[in-house]
Structure formats: C-alpha cells, structure tokens
Amino acid sequence: MRLSASALVGVLVTAVALFLTPASPAAAHNTLQEATPARNARVTTPPGEITLRFMQKLDPDLTTITLTDDTGQEMPTGEVTVTGPTGTIAIDEPIANGTYTVAYRVVSADGHPVRGSYRFTVADPTRTAGPTEAASPSVLPTTAESPTATATPSPAASDSTDDGPDTVVMVGAALLGVLALAGLALMLRRRRHNAA
User: What is the C-alpha separation between 44 and 79, in angstroms, rounded?
Assistant: First the structure.
C-alpha cells in the first residue's frame, strides 16, 4: 500500500509538471507593449508613422498594421517594416484632424494569432477638419468626444483575442489545489493503514 500511494503521488506531481510546462509560452501571447501615437492620445501634430512594439519578436510575413479614419476609410500607408518586436508603417499622406483607428494582427511564438486595435485623435489647431467633417455643418458635432463618434467601436476593439495568462494561472492553481487534497488524503490513508 505504501508503494502504490507513493507511485500515485509521483504520477500526480508529473502530471502537474507536464501541465504547467507548456502553459508558460502559451500564456505569453504576443501582446502590444507600446504604441506611437499612444492609445487614446490627442496629438496636435499629425504623425508621419505608426510604431507598435510587442512583447515578442515579430514575423514580417505575418504582421499587419492598418490605419483608418472615423468613417472606416483606410489611409494610404507604406508596407510594414519589422525590426525585432517592433512594427512600423509610414503614413503616405498628411492626415487631417479627426479620430483614427490603428488595427494590427500579429502571430505569437506558439502560432496563436493576436488581433487588436486602438484609437487616437489628431487635433492640430493650425489645420482644418478632414473632408468628412467639413462637407456638411451637420457632421461637425461628430468629434472624438461626442457619443456618435464612439458609439460604434472597431470590430477588434480589444488588445488581443487570446485567453491571457490569467485563465491558465487559474486553471493551474485549481489543479494544484485538487492534487494537494488528493495527496493529503493518500497520506492520511497510509497512516491509518500503518497504525492498524
């Protein structure tokens, strides 16, 4: 009985180790660490490029970054330039005042695709509003602060579509708790057997 209990505890410990080992890279999906312009930034000078820095090295063939205005019109940009974990696109033409959405798609080291987006606003006091805003006076109230401008979020409004590290940590903690209780039960049973 003592040998079988020890063997069972060993199997449980091995199972925990096997569960937690692949969990570390899976939890570390390639998340956005820094962006220029930043999320929700209000810049007074129109940017000439968009730069995104991620947690992991990027694959140039699997990295996409786009820029759209508040009507969903894609702005003309150059190809994505990748340097390690950083991806950059040049904005081909000066952009007018307004709210813009940066959307990206990258792939994690484990092959997990990660999509996300964020917004920033250009508010250059020396520039006029974009064609959409200047076309009709009725459109002028639609600014970055108005409810209309933020009522329809981007389809990829979150930073990432991955489950995140919290889920893996919670599952691992729950499994460790169950295994600890099972080990305690086995130890109590062995003591009773030896005492008998």
Answer: 25
Q: What is the CATH number of the domain that holds 99?
A: 2.60.40.1220
Map residue 85 onto helix, strand or coil: coil
Report pLDDT for 79.
96
Q: What DSSP line would sit under 114-138, residue for residue?
A: EEEEEEEEE--TTSPBPHHHHS-GG
109 and 36 housed in the same domain? yes
Are residues 48 and 108 both part of a single domain? yes
Q: What pTM was estimated for this model as a whole?
A: 0.55
Instruction: Report pLDDT for 127.
Output: 75
- Same domain (yes/no): 110, 182: no
Range of the domain at 117: 30-161
* Domain tally, the chain: 2
How far are the Cα atoms of 50, 66, 123, 148, 184 from residue 136, in angstroms, in the given order? 29, 27, 19, 16, 74
> What stretches in the chain show pLDDT beneath 50?
1-3, 20-26, 132-167, 169
